[in-house]
Write a structure and sequence with these properties.
By secondary structure, this protein is mainly α. It contains four helices and three strands. It is elongated and about 65 Å long. The N and C termini lie far apart (about 50 Å).
Length: about 110
Amino acid sequence: MTDARLNIRVDAGIKEQAESVFQKLGLTMSSGVNIFLTKVASEQRIPFSLTLDRADVIGYDAYKIEQAMVACVREEIAEYQRKGIPVARYDAKTKRAYLEYPDGRREFIDSE
């Protein structure tokens, strides 16, 4: 394994706080950063949750419209279930459409 140099800019206060934590753990800044990068590489993701509130992402007005639409769709689905009418759904994992019956039974729709 060949070492590579990494030069990054960080807030001075954050750097000092991180160095303090690493020191208490018996680590250097370099070993702490290496641990983080190793975790990212092995898991193929950031090893903690990065989230924003949905309203922050799309804007408050759009969020309120989206919430109203979701509520309408849920009410319509509930009405279909009360009447015994199947609801069209989509399984993102298998990438297939299906009908979901009020008893929970699923009937996949073949695209062929």
